[in-house]
Structure formats: structure tokens, C-alpha cells
Amino acid sequence: MEVDALSVGLRALSFIALFQAGGAALFVARFGSETAVSGALIRKIGLVAALAGIVFAVGHYALEAARMAGEIAGMLDPSLQQLVLSSSASSALAWRVAGLLLIAIGLGSPSASGSSSTSSQALLTLLGVVWAAAAFALVGHTVESPSRWVLSLALIAHLLAVAFWFGGLVPLYLVSRRESLAAAAKIVADYSSIASRVVPALFIAGVLLAVLLLPGVAALASPYGLILLGKVTLFALLMALATLNKWHFGPAMARGDESAKVKFQRSVLAELTLISIVLAMTAVMTSLYSPE
User: Fold this and answer.
1) According to the model, what pLDDT value does residue 110 have?
2) Which H helix or E strand runs over 248?
3) Taking each helix axis from N to C terminus, what angle separates 2-31 and 119-134, rounded to the nearest 10 degrees?
4) Under 8 Å between Cβ of 217 and 206
5) Three-state SS for 112?
6) DSSP structure class, residue 274
7) Where are the domains of the chain?
8) Segment 141-182, tens digit of pLDDT
């Protein structure tokens, strides 16, 4: 049980770090030229998140043998480590690490220290985001499904949308704190406009995944299904906060309302907290339970 708890914790942290790094990369690629004051810090946060994501992912992978043995000592068992090494988890780890390294290189290169990135740096980080997301399609229940390719595409689309939403929150918070009110309001408006198209795609891909993975409605009463329903509930709360940002706080900032900026920051922090909880629930769900 202790091994499982540690494994789930590392998995949750790896999710948070990965999506923060990916979202920061996407944010920089789109808004880097508009973040004269906050851009360098956003890149640094993305770089640190990418490196942390590698550490957490490798740590989680190292515990796979221990989980098989049911105790930490299993990490030292050569036969169990060989089983892990020959599994799809190794390929998935290699893909994820490669993706995160591309993000780190793109965000951390000396020429990216200014307010904008070159097209080659943006392409490198975007490739890294897609590569890291694609790693998830190499393991798990999507691999075993007859609809593997449909599920894989839906999963990658779902994860890219999560990266854009979750990973864009810290940059938005920093923009609202450091940039001028007018500049922050413009970025918030543009981000919300993109999110209005990305978030429905996230929801549709999530529904498709649930429909294809769950054997029936009765499966919603299983631990896997109950956690899934919990995630849907939190998603509804997140949509309410996102709606406030788009239609109330954002426009108020554009009108020059300084108090709206503080309210926007509080809303963003609430979104950040809720999505972090969703990612932790996902780590529990995918580590300990099955949709079957």
C-alpha cells in the first residue's frame, strides 16, 4: 500500500509538471511577443516544470518493479526490473522524457531569454508538447482496446487541451500581475477566445474516451466510474470559473477596472487548484483501477 501511495503521488506530480511545462510552451509560442515583462519568468517556470516532470516520471517508472513485488525492496530485483524494461512503460517513458527535453531546450535556450522566441524554438517546444502527449497513447487501456487508434487520437487531443488550459493558468496569473492592465486584458481576451474552442474539444474527447473505455453505464458505480463522475463535477465548476473570466473579469479589465484584475487572479488560482485535484484523481484512477 505504501508503494502504491508513493507511486500514485509521483504520477500525480509528473502529470502536474508535464502539463505545466507543455502549457507554458504553448503560451510562449502564442503570446511570447506580448509578454515583455513576464515572458522570462514564464519561460523559466516552463523549463523548471519540464525538468521536474522528467524527474517525477523517472521516479514513478523506477517504482514499477516495487509495485510488482508489493514492497520497496522490489526495486532491487533484477528479474522484475527486466520485466519493466521490456514493457511498454519503457517506451512511454522514453517518449515523455524526449518530449520534455525538447520543451526544456526550446524554453531554456539563450536566444529565448528575450520577450519572444524564434520560429525554430517555437516549433521545437510545440513538437515536444505533442511528443510528450503521444507517450500516453503507448500504455494503458487505450492500447488494449479494439478502437486503439480512435482512442489514441482522442486521448492526445484531450491531453493537449488540458496542457493549454492548465499550463496557461500560471502564465495568465503572472501576466495579470506584471504586465500593464491594457496588455493583460488583451492577452486574457485572446486566451479566452482560443479556450472557447479548445475546452469543447477537451470535453468531446473526454466523452469519447469514456464511451469507448467503459463497458456500460453500470461501470459508473465502480471506483473507476465514481472517480470519473467526480472529475466531471469538478469540470463543471471549472467551466463556471472560466465563464466568469471570459465574460466578466476579462471585459472589466479591458475597461480599466483594477479591482477586476485581483478577482481574475483569485479565479485563476481557484482553477489551478481544481485542475490539480483533477490530475491527482486521474493518477489514482489510472494507477489503481480499471474501467472494466
Assistant:
1) 60
2) none
3) 150
4) no
5) helix
6) H
7) 2-288
8) 777 767 788 889 999 999 999 999 999 999 999 999 999 999
Give the whole-angstrom CA distance, residue 169 versus residue 196.
15
The CATH number corresponding to 2-288 among 2.40.160, 3.30.450, 1.20.1630, 1.10.150 equals: 1.20.1630
- Check: CB of residue 188 under 8 Å from CB of residue 172: yes
Closest CA to 46 of 183, 177, 187, 171: 171
Residue 211 exposed, middle or buried by CB count within 10 Å (0-12, 13-18, 19+): exposed
Residues 106, 21: Cα–Cα separation, whole Å = 11
What's the average model confidence in pLDDT over 225-254? 94
DSSP string covering 124-183, please? HHHHHHHHHHHGGGGSSHHHHSTTHHHHHHHHHHHHHHHHHHHHHHHHHHHHHHHS-HHH
| Start-to-end CA span in the chain (Å) | 22
pLDDT for the residue numbered 57 = 96
C-alpha cell at 225: 466510474
CA-angle at 103, arms to 89 and 246, nearest 5°: 105
Cell 465514481, located at residue: 226
Q: How far out from the chain centre does Cα 126 lie?
A: 14
CB neighbour burial string for 47-60, b if at least 16 within 10 angstroms, e if fewer:
bbbbbbbbebbebb
